[in-house]
Amino acid sequence: GYLAYDATQTQARPAVLIVHEWWGHNEYARSRARQLAEAGYVAFAVDMYGDGATADHPEDAKKFAMAAGGNLPQSRARFEAAKDYVSNLTQVDATKIAAIGYCFGGGMVLQMARMGVDITAVASFHGSYGTELSVAPGDIKASILVCHGAEDAFIPAEDITALKSEMSAAKADFSFISYPEAKHSFTNPDADIYGSRFELPLAYSPDADKASWQDLLTFLAARFEEGPVKN
Prior knowledge:
Number of helices: 7
CATH architecture: 3-Layer(aba) Sandwich
Strand content: 15-25%
CATH topology: Rossmann fold
Number of domains: 1
Helix content: 25-40%
Radius of gyration: 16 Å
Shape: globular
Order of helices and strands: EEHEHHEHEEHEHH
CATH class: Alpha Beta
């Protein structure tokens, strides 16, 4: 994992875990950790594949993601280990921990919320919404924010409908924001490179990236009940 925080801050503060895209624990996940540190949080980019495994090709990325998604007990153990690690840091207020995820990671943090992981909030950016888990009212402890690209070709409309119904039935504190004209991977500046190299419908959207980041900071501040966070 990768830890980032502002060492000049002395008081304990909330922590945010970051779960990477299907490419693995790469520089992009670490850059988001640094951004969250600048916003006043302790941030920890989690390696959900183990051993720092990363993929350069979608076929390998898919294998890694499916292995992690197909073994939720192991993925939960890794996630809980990361949560325990940050909880024990002197810089962290252990009652205030959130998790965000991108692409694969977005789907994964939603799965963790469905499994009832004891965490304040989760946010998914261009994640997947499908699940084999059945969720009853009260199962989900975390507040949930889903940041979705309106033009995401990987997400069928029925998945969005199913997710909203599922969250409503579970009585979850759930927000869904759709960003116009945003495609899959809209937060990643390298999305266009990946998209053209592998002929995938990926694209960076500076507008949606900026808007969704602001929506995240607003969401976290509200759920952690703090004052405005430094942008």
